[in-house]
Amino acid sequence: MSHATTSPDRRGSANEPLQSVLWAGTHLDLLDQRQLPEEIVYLQLHTSEDVWEAIRHLKVRGAPAIGIAAAFGVYLGVRHAEGNAEHILAEVNRHADYLATSRPTAVNLFWALDRMKAKAETHARSGEADGEALKAAMLAEAEAIRAEDEETCRLIGEHALTLLSDGIGVLTHCNAGGLATAKYGTALAPLYLAKERGWDIKVFADETRPVLQGSRLTAFELQQAGVDVTLICDNMAAMVMSKGWVQAVIVGTDRVAANGDVANKIGTYGVAVLAKAHGIPFYVACPMSTIDLNTPTGSEIPIEERNEDEVTQGFGKRTAPAGVKVFNPAFDVTPNEYVTAIITEKGVVKAPYGDGLKRLFE
Ligand code: MRU
């Protein structure tokens, strides 16, 4: 049961980008992405249960944003707990383990929760017995995760821009923009930087069935920023590519396996195959926190399956016969041979990915 109420949109003007997750002093303000683009509604989240529910139901979504929200969720979970550092540490671990059950695929969720746990552990083991100080450290760590993501995304944008040029067409799938991160996005970051530099890039946004992150979120945020964006249905990408309108595909990812296989929103694999068939580079942009060297290949990445209603009545009315069998995976895995380069805040990696990704962490 959610205790969320709503906050006003805190932007100074309608031209400022919307932020997906904001600490508001007493609670978390979270942009309800399910309501975009029709309504801009900030939910006030007060408990770790509120955050779990928001992640599970895609009110906050996109790998980095999920991690940021979860980090604040840990703090919300322990905020009113009383006791010494040992007790607060146990509570941190309990809330982190609970939040880890919200969604399975985006590794940023587990990365952020592990980072919160590690910080709490170090604090408690330092001999500092004060539980209040540990709670303050949890808030500071969540804020650091959010702030670092903003800088990380800007750097990803800078590196990605070296692979693009003025005047080209770019196709993207799902939403890997500012709404999916603290700011700028991953795949969309170079497009914002290009706009700042006066480049003319034409973006094609796949609608991204069944939850429509491409039309509801990517088309919305690019349009708000004045980027030239054209919305297409998923089944139009081949035609748009065949016309020569796309010189690069750039997408985000929820988890990169150690061999460079990439999990991202369902439909990404198809786009990668199309890109290869048309000789178009297929770029994947992500923070280092999305690279999971503990998962050897894409086959080991857990793929979330979501409710069949997303497929049968996602447009607010039934679009399939009642009782029909439905398969609704939220993600697919693009094999590394389709990936031209992986772009991180530390630079651009090309095949062979096994060595290249490992070197990034050295
Ligand atoms: O189900 P979602 O909306 O959370 O899926 C999001 C994506 O697939 C994004 O492309 C990915 O998380 C990268 S966000 C920078």
Automatic annotation (TrEMBL):
Where on this chain does substrate bind? R61, G62, A63, R103, Q213, N264, K265
Under Gene Ontology molecular function, one entry of this record is:
S-methyl-5-thioribose-1-phosphate isomerase activity
> What does the record give as EC number?
5.3.1.23
Enzyme class, UniProt record, top EC level: isomerase
Keywords (alphabetical) are: Amino-acid biosynthesis, Isomerase, Methionine biosynthesis
Record-annotated site: Transition state stabilizer = C174
Q: In which pathway does it act?
A: Amino-acid biosynthesis; L-methionine biosynthesis via salvage pathway; L-methionine from S-methyl-5-thio-alpha-D-ribose 1-phosphate: step 1/6
**Catalysed reaction(s)?**
5-(methylsulfanyl)-alpha-D-ribose 1-phosphate = 5-(methylsulfanyl)-D-ribulose 1-phosphate
Biological process terms in GO annotation? L-methionine salvage from methylthioadenosine
Q: Where is the active site?
A: D254
Give the record's family classification. Answer: Belongs to the EIF-2B alpha/beta/delta subunits family. MtnA subfamily.
Q: Which NCBIfam families match?
A: eIF-2B_rel, PRK05720.1, salvage_mtnA
Q: What does this protein do?
A: Catalyzes the interconversion of methylthioribose-1-phosphate (MTR-1-P) into methylthioribulose-1-phosphate (MTRu-1-P).
Name of this protein? Methylthioribose-1-phosphate isomerase
* Species of origin: Paenibacillus ginsengarvi
Q: What is the lineage of its organism?
A: Bacteria, Bacillati, Bacillota, Bacilli, Bacillales
Gene name linked to the record: mtnA
